C-alpha cells in the first residue's frame, strides 16, 4: 500500500514536471523559444489582472497532455525584461502570446481559464507539428 502511494506520488510529480512552465529572461528567451510551440505569459507582478491570472496559469501549465507535440509553457516578467516584451507585441499585462520555432504567431484572446487555454495550446501544437 505504501509502495503504491509512493508510485502514485512519483507519477504525479512526473506529470507536474512535464506540465511545468519555465521562467524566461532576456538571456534565455530567444534560445528557448527558438524551437517548438510556446505559450508565453508576459506579465507584471503588480498588475491586478496578472495576479488574477497567476493561479489559472499554474493550473493550465499542470494540465495533462501539454508536453506532447513539443509544446512548452513559459512566463516572462516585463518589469525586469521589458525589451523582450517590447519586441514581442506586448502592449499590456498580462499578454499571452503563441510562438512557433521562434516566430510570433498570435495573441491568445480566448477565455481566461485553464481548460480553454489547454485546448488552444494543444490544437495549435498539433497544427505546427
Ligand atoms: C532562464 O534564466 C533564469 C535566470 O537565470 C532561470 O531562472 C530560468 O530557469 C532560465 N530558463 C530556462 C528555460 O532555462
From TrEMBL:
InterPro entries: PDI, Thioredoxin-like_sf, Thioredoxin_CS, Thioredoxin_domain. Residues 1-19 form the signal peptide. Keywords: Signal. The keyword Signal applies. PROSITE patterns: THIOREDOXIN_1, THIOREDOXIN_2. Pfam families: Thioredoxin. Residues 13-126 form the Thioredoxin domain. Belongs to the protein disulfide isomerase family. This is Thioredoxin domain-containing protein. It comes from Basidiobolus ranarum.
